[in-house]
Amino acid sequence: MPIYEYTCVTCSNRFDKRRSMSEMNDPASCPDCGSESRRVLSVFAAFSSDASGQTSAVAGAGGCCGGGAGGGCACAMSV
Known about the structure:
The chain is mostly beta strands and 79 residues long. It has strands at residues 3-8, 14-18, 37-40, 47-49, 55-57. A hairpin with a 5-residue loop joins strand 4 and strand 5 (55-57).
């Protein structure tokens, strides 16, 4: 089940809710003040590990085929 991000229109609290795709635009009450909230666009971070196991963020990851210096796309991976 996907996790969606919301922002409260009253207190600006950002929070996540796990709900089905059919419920993603249903009203979500703020857990802090109980007011109405709006769904916001979620962003993700791409990470990579080197041979030693050191993990770091991939610079310029732009999602699938969005390009950037580090790729960040399954399309750019070699098998």
